[in-house]
Amino acid sequence: MIRLKDVEKYYSNKFVKTWVLRNIDMEVKEGDFVTIMGPSGAGKSTLLHILGMLDDMSGGEYYFLDEPVHQLNERKRTGFHQQYIGFVFQAYHLIDELTVYENLETPLLYKKVKTSERKSLIAETLDRFNIVAKKDLFPNQLSGGQQQLVAVARALIINPKLILADEPTGNLNSKQGLEIMDMLKALNDEGTTIIQVTHDEKKAAYGDRIIHLLDGYIDKIDERN
Amino acid sequence: MFNNYLKMAFRNIQKFKGYSIINITGLTLGMTCCIFILLWVQHELSYDRFHEHADSLYRVIDYEKYSNGDELTFSTNPPALAPVLKEEYPEINELCRIIEPDGAVIRYQDNSFNEENILCADPAFFSMFSFPFVEGKKETVLKDPSSIVISEKMANKYFGDVEAVGKTLRINNTTDFLVAGVFKDLPSNSHIHFDFVLPFEAAKLLGNEIEGWNSYAYTFYVLLNVKTDVGLFNQKIKDTIKRYDDTAIVELSLQPVVDIHLRSGDMWGIGGDGDIRYVYLFSMIAVLILLVACINYMNLTTAYSGNRTKEIGLRKVIGARRSELILQYMGESVILAIIALIFSILLVFLCLPFYNTLSGKEFVLNFSNYKNCAILLFGVTILTGIIAGSYPALFLSSFKPVIIFKGNLKIGSGNSIFRKILVSMQFVLSICLIITTLTVNRQMFYLKNKKLGFNNEHLLYIYLPGELGEKTELIKNEFNKNNAVQNSSVVSSLPLPVNASFILDSWDGRQGDDKFLTHFMSVDYDFLNTMELTMAEGRFFSKEFPSDTQDGAVVNETAVRVMGMESPIGKNVGRGKIIGVMQDYHFRSLHSKITPLLLIFSRKQSNYILIRLKTGDVAQSLQSLETTWRHNFAEYPFEYRFLDERINKLYSSEQQVEKIMKVFTLLAVFIACLGLFGLASFTTAQRRKEIGIRKVLGLSVGGIVKMLANDFTQYVLYANLISWPVAWFAMSKWLQNFAYRIQLHFWMFLTAGVLALCVALLTIGYHSIRAATANPVEALRYE
Ligand SMILES: Nc1ncnc2c1ncn2[C@@H]1O[C@H](COP(=O)(O)OP(=O)(O)O)[C@@H](O)[C@H]1O
Ligand SMILES: [Mg+2]
User: Fold this and answer.
1) B265: exposed, middle or buried (Cβ count in 10 Å: 0-12, 13-18, 19+)
2) Which of B177, B292, B402, B619 is the most exposed place for a label (fewest CB within 10 A)?
3) CATH of domain A2-223
4) Dihedral (C-alpha) A107, A112, A113, A119: value to the nearest 10 degrees?
5) How many alpha carbons lie under 13 Å from residue A43 in its C-beta half-sphere?
6) pLDDT digits (tens, 9 = 90+) for B420-455
7) Could you give the CA distance from residue B123 to residue B440 in angstroms, rounded to a whole number?
8) Which residue's CA is the nearest one to ligand 1's atom 26?
């Protein structure tokens, strides 16, 4: 599903080039559950953003479902966002001016899902995440855990093939964190590909493979099972 | 999707109240200005288009070129031209002549009034022009030579609620006319204004020649066959008068009636008070003011875009295409523009009475009548929204999605060059408008205060209708007995502007077949003293020389110069002998240079009495004049005018421009300041931390204010560089309309620049001082 070949990323500031990622080669198959670990500043988030086509890479090749992402235009990438990719971030990131219901609705609107289907999808999701009572509240009226729940729900509502999660439980208490992890695991069991970033060994254990990043290089890869 | 955008828009308006209020206020004011100007423009452009045959109606105009190179266009023709045109040119379907006599006294039973808006017209008048009737039949009304047609307003004035048709009105206390019809009051966008229409023959009764080739007093309108090629037809009729009158040099052509109001230039004749250049000028100002408002929006929206980076990034992450984001942000500005439209329509309704006094028009905002206007408004609104939203939308939608991970960036400061240009542009417009207002104002002041060569204070005139014009000795005697009167003189026409003119083609020492146009008036012995004019040479008309009344002529200095006379006294000019030369005085508007003027002694009809009041209580003097009048001429109404009013009227279109200019300049500057205010609040907020650090490091409050003000001062300075030459060019062009004009002085430009700078500094001063006096620890803690 995903193939990276010699991907690199640097920031250049006047005459100084700062490398963030170098020589990244990796492959992710459909149904994989991959964990990325590493110290702060190692480039984990940057890698995830590149995988999610949120950020450009400075060099190398990236194939997503055999399409060369490094050659695609913005329109095509947006298409992938709509169709295949769901994001969960450490800092929830909901649209503050929209209610829970509207936040869930927005990706479906962009995907041009029909009204009736949209309504049932949202109802179903609210139900599944147990947030029906909260549907008319704005994000700032919710607790952190609830916001992250909504963010996850929004990522899942388009039924993505790939979920990218950047420290999704970082701001939650352990009970809430485990709930989210269980949910991701359940999705993975149903066939969704998941790539997560975490610092927590226990949560890393949910994956079948752990990629360790250090100063922008892949330090080592732990295969489990 | 649309709902989603709409909710977003309204919630954002609520969330950023201050910024939304500034945006909406700016757009509202801009659009209000625009609507007001459009109302005026539309009114100007609508002149005479309400006639059913508007496209086939023409006026016959005349062009003369003299041997000294002077050119003249006018729109009056001799009465005998009518049958000739009709018989010789089958292209003319209908033709009518009209004349506007000076005025008449109209009486119904015991009530009489001096009326000015009188026309005499051929019967075709009402079938060519579409003036709807409320009583009577328009097809037949003017065929009966003793009929009169009046306006609804006059029907009310004379007859109250009673039916007017069938009543008798007496003109100049001598002749009766039967009211045959009543027409609706004229719309204000008609180039002809009249309340009474008399049959053509009545012109004779009111003192006009109605036959022959000599009296160029009639305005001719023709209704052309639709298929006529006007260009070719103009060639055909060009020499018509010359064929019948060997001395004539006049060339005929046709002017579309719909062009009369705006495109008559300085042609003599009815209508043509408008000027297409002012229509262009004001349309441009409308667009520019709207642009200033749009620039505000762009500036503020991009400045505040930092608040929306997270949303934009997120939307991209969850699948928004760039085009959808562009649509969303454009949509928001369109929504804002529509809100502004609603406010501005309210504002227009509220301010309309004020605007009507200002412009001297009677505008109404009535959407059922102005379908086009409504469409136009809506179009302008959408366009405003799109223009205002374009740059922010393109700018905001271009962010990469990763932007969300970088927090609310200080994007506002990133695009500062573009913003500098925008803000400077606003100042360019503001400064240009200020310079324009200053120039127009100075020029009007100059016109009002220029020495005209006579004393125009306390000088009034009374129109002498009908037989009063023959009783001038009596009238003068009665007035001279009155203590309030210093001097009085009876004249054939008013001394400013003098309208009567003829082509002078004989004088002593004439070279070849030189001829030139000279104005003339007939006056009596007291004219010189009443006007307080000065002789340059010779003497004025005097009782001691009886022959003066037969062939005496007084000319002005310009006439002497044009004729090329060395010692003019005693020389022949036309049928007279020069007895004196008076110093030039301005007998026409200051738009044109002084031209030749010839005075002869008044022997028959005099139309006006000029009265100079002694200095003193004017109201009391007027009262005593009225007593004198009532005592002697009770059957005529007492109506006087000051000559000053008449002089002011010469510049009425400029005065209107001046007033409108002032208001719109003020508004444009205000709108620009509004934007600046918002921008200043933004930049100072952005620099809170910097200001805090600098303060901790010991920079004084004054120093900080200076630092903040520096930025904006730059804008104004750049703006001056651009606006000065632009304004200089435009204003020199405008001043060329006046033969007598002010110089453009450097101080006017400097004033405008300094004024703009002061206003800008005042605007941003509030924010700067607040930022500079804030506790630095607070600022640092919050970052
Ligand atoms: N816009 C940027 N300009 C320069 N350096 C950046 C930028 N964004 C991130 N970095 C650097 O890239 C490195 C990797 O960042 P990141 O991927 O966020 O690390 P991680 O998520 O592993 O903590 C960090 O050293 C960070 O300072
Ligand atoms: Mg990170």
Assistant:
1) exposed
2) B619
3) 3.40.50.300
4) 60
5) 26
6) 788 888 889 899 999 999 999 999 999 888 999 999
7) 45
8) A41
The residue assigned the tokens 């085009």 is: B323
Contact yes or no for B94/B69 (Cβ under 8 A): no
Q: Tell me the pLDDT of chain B averaged across its residues.
A: 88
DSSP structure class, residue A141:
G
Contacts of B7 in chain A (CB under 8 A): 97-98, 102
Q: Which residue's alpha carbon is at the smallest distance from atom 11 of ligand 1?
A: A20
pTM: 0.81
**Which among B4, B321, B400 has CB closest to A55?**
B400
Nearest to A1 by CA among A46, A41, A33, A36: A33
Sign of CA dihedral B349, B353, B358, B364: positive
Q: Among residues of chain A, what percentage have pLDDT more than 70? A: 99
DSSP symbols for A163-223 = EEEESTTTTS-HHHHHHHHHHHHHHHHTT-EEEEE-S-HHHHTTSSEEEEEETTEEEEEEE
Which residue of A7, A10, A14, A18 sits with most ligand 1 atoms within 8 Å of its CB, as the best mutation to test the pocket?
Answer: A18
Nearest to B402 among A49, A98, A109 (CB): A49
H-helix or E-strand spanning residue B320: none
C-alpha closest to that of A184 among A144, A156, A209, A218: A156
In chain A, what are the domain boundaries?
2-223
Å from CA of B341 to ligand 1 middle:
47
Amino acid at B660: I
**DSSP letter string over B250-308?**
-EEEEEEGGGTTTS-TT-BSS-----HHHHHHHHHHHHHHHHHHHHHHHHHHHHGGGGG
Contacts of A96 in chain B (CB under 8 A): 310-311
In the three-class reduction of DSSP (H, G, I as helix; E, B as strand; rest coil), residue B597 is classed as: strand
What pLDDT does residue B412 have?
Answer: 47
CA angle A175, A176, A182 (to 5 degrees): 90
Residue A112, C-beta contacts closer than 8 angstroms, at least 6 positions apart: none
Angstrom distance (rounded) from CA B308 to CA B71: 66
Task: Indicate if ligand 1 lies below 6 Å from the C-beta of A209.
Answer: no
Dig out the tokens for B70 from the structure.
């002077």
A82·B401 Cβ contact <8 A: no
